[in-house]
């Protein structure tokens, strides 16, 4: 039968008392796992991953409705006003402005079918100019990022670019999936 | 410090569970992030009062590649015969397009020739899928590691 800490303390001197106190502390530490180091590692890893995820400018939601074509274009993505052309809608900065069905824009006014897009882009430009004026920041740079599904008809793509030109966008970047050589 | 949550101590086990789940989720998400790039394109000015897209079109020494259901047609603005590259059973002949464009560029930049701009115009049938236009731009932009026509201009269709 092993001695308990109380038994050990009953008949000992001062030197032995120090030894027994240490032994008792070691006995308690073994009973529980020290998680502090593991928590440190996990916290650092978590912060790193959250920063990596949130900083990615290409943080786009690509799915079956919006699958960008593969390309060997070398330029990295930079933030800009974004127009997305999926199989189901044309979206300006995450707000749908036109519906698409079977590769055609759903509209009651075919002569002005891009009017909602034009209004949305013009409003976005006005907002950016107003913000720049109020904050003293850089003026609207005229850059438009176009994220289009790979099956988008060329006619619709150029239609969107034409409307963007009328909304005073002057530089166009087509977003593509990186194709490894 | 004990992780078991003894009396008077903070119980860290639920906290660690959450952390572990978050780390696993973020690791899975970041591993599957699709790498995106951007391809700058030029678009001709549409009307005089809008600023439109910038254009570097020079009526002399400019190439136009048309993409249609039949295949590619390379048209020049200075009298060199055009080339037709019909669509093959497995799709458009992108390698042949690169080869033909290289020949045009080499011929036009020879001594005594008018030369060529680095820009090239791509125009496609209105129903041509966007992926074929992007692949055409890739074929025209680089010949292996050598730049061919790095400036691509998309022609807008008249009906837009």
List keywords for this structure.
heterodimer; A: 181 residues; alpha/beta; 2 domains; seven-stranded mixed beta sheet; 7 strands; 43% helix; B: 160 residues; Nucleotidyltransferase, domain 5; five-stranded mixed beta sheet; two-stranded antiparallel ribbon; 29% helix; elongated
Descriptive notes:
The complex is a heterodimer of chains A (181) and B (160). With 181 residues, chain A is α/β, with parallel strands linked by helices. Chain A folds into 2 domains: 5-55; 70-178, no CATH class. Chain A is built from 5 helices and 7 strands, in the order H-H-H-E-E-E-E-E-H-E-H-E. Chain A has helices at 5-10, 14-31, 36-55, 115-135, 154-166; strands at 70-71, 81-85, 89-92, 95-101, 104-106, 143-148, 171-178. In chain A, helix 5 links the parallel strand 6 and strand 7 (171-178). In chain A, helix 4 (115-135) packs across helix 5 (154-166). The mean pLDDT of chain A is 81. Chain B has 160 residues and is α/β, with parallel strands linked by helices. Chain B is built from 3 helices and 8 strands. In chain B, the strands form 2 sheets. Chain B has a 5-stranded mixed β-sheet, covered by helices on one side. In chain B, strands 6-7 form a two-stranded antiparallel sheet. Chain B is elongated. Residues 1-5 and 46-59 of chain B have low confidence and may be disordered. Chains A and B meet through helix 3, strand 1, helix 5 and strand 7 of A and helix 1, strand 1 and helix 3 of B.
């Amino acid at each position: 039968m092993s001695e308990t800490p109380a038994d050990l303390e009953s008949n000992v001197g001062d030197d032995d008392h120090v030894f027994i106190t240490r032994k008792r502390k070691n006995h308690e530490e073994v009973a529980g796992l020290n998680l502090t180091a593991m928590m440190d590692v996990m916290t650092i890893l978590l912060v790193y991953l959250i920063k990596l995820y949130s900083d990615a400018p290409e943080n786009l939601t690509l799915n079956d409705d919006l699958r960008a074509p593969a390309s060997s274009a070398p330029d990295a993505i930079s933030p800009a006003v974004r127009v997305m052309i999926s199989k189901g809608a044309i979206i300006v900065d995450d707000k749908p402005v036109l519906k698409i069905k079977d590769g055609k824009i759903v509209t009651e006014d075919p002569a002005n079918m891009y009017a909602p897009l034009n209004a949305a882009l013009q409003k976005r430009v006005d907002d950016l100019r107003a913000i720049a004026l109020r904050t003293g920041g850089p003026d609207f740079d005229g850059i438009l990022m176009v994220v289009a599904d790979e099956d988008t008809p060329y006619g619709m793509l150029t239609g969107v670019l034409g409307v963007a030109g009328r909304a005073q966008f002057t530089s166009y970047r087509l977003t593509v999936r990186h194709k490894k050589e | 410090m004990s992780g078991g949550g003894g009396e008077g101590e903070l119980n860290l086990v639920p906290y660690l569970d959450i952390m572990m789940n978050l780390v696993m989720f973020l690791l899975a998400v970041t591993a599957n992030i699709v790498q995106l790039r951007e391809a700058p394109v030029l678009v001709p000015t549409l009307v005089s009062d809008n600023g439109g897209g910038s254009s570097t079109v020079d009526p002399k020494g400019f190439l136009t590649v048309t993409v249609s259901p039949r295949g590619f047609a390379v048209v020049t603005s200075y009298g060199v015969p055009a080339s037709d590259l019909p669509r093959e059973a497995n799709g458009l002949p992108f390698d042949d397009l690169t080869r033909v464009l290289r020949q045009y560029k080499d011929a036009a930049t020879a001594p005594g020739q008018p030369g060529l701009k680095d820009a090239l115009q791509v125009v496609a049938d209105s129903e041509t899928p966007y992926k074929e236009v992007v692949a055409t731009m890739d074929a025209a932009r680089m010949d292996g590691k050598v730049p061919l026509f790095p400036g691509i201009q998309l022609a807008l269709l008249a009906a837009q």
